[in-house]
Write a structure and sequence with these properties.
The chain is of the alpha+beta class and about 80 residues long. Helix content is about 20%, strand content about 50%. Strands 1-3-2 form a three-stranded antiparallel β-sheet.
């Protein structure tokens, strides 16, 4: 098992449940990554959806909020 920090579109519960094929998964708690902000450093593959892929970078004084999930090692590989 592993703790997974979700942010951006991975906070969309229906999306993460579909991706992990786990209809029961739910966040354990909200969490903050201090001194970081979300960015969009690359585009997704055109066959997926063609938009920006969320990432994060250091940003003094900014906070990146998300949620923590407890997921299996196999689910880590999927994410």
């Amino acid at each position: 098992m592993a703790y997974y920090f979700a942010y951006g579109s991975n906070l969309h519960l229906a999306q993460i449940r579909e991706r992990l094929e786990d209809k029961e998964i739910a966040p354990l708690f909200a969490a903050c990554l201090p001194n970081h902000k979300m960015n969009f450093p690359i585009n997704s593959l055109p066959k997926r959806w063609g938009g920006g892929v969320a990432g994060f970078e250091r940003a003094e004084g900014e906070d990146l909020w998300g949620a923590v999930f407890d997921i299996t090692d196999e689910q880590v590989r999927i994410m």
